[in-house]
Here is the input.
Amino acid sequence: MEAALSKTRYIWLKNPGTLTAKQQATLATLKERNLKTARTYQIRLTLQELFQTRSRQEGEAFLKKWYFWATHSRLPPIVAAAKTIKNHWDGVLNWFHSGLPTGLVEGFNSLLQAAKARARGYRSDANFITIAYLIGGKLNFTLPT
Here is the structure.
């Protein structure tokens, strides 16, 4: 079984549209063998379809179906991922209102955490919020010459 998965890591990390012809043939062969890895790959691809739904209501209905499928898959990493999504359910569905990519939000959060660590705490929430605006606003404080 492990020999069949040898040198296939990048096939599972890519979306089907970006696979080479050789990788697509390998993937088709592996899917026929009903491997847990192939089931996991299909669950991952299905979750990506959430972002093609049009509204929060439609997205929530989709996510409920996906969650049921994932939690009943008997694949521990998928069950754990589904539970994480369930814990952040509203945050995931807020994407329909904000449309912000998670990478952008994570990047900004990283900047704020670094500022918080550098300062070793702020005396008040107002000071921390002020620093957040200064970091996020990308203001230019150079003096005119």
Remarks:
- The chain has two domains: 2-98, 102-137.
- The two ends are 70 Å apart (CA to CA).
- The longest helix spans residues 102-119.
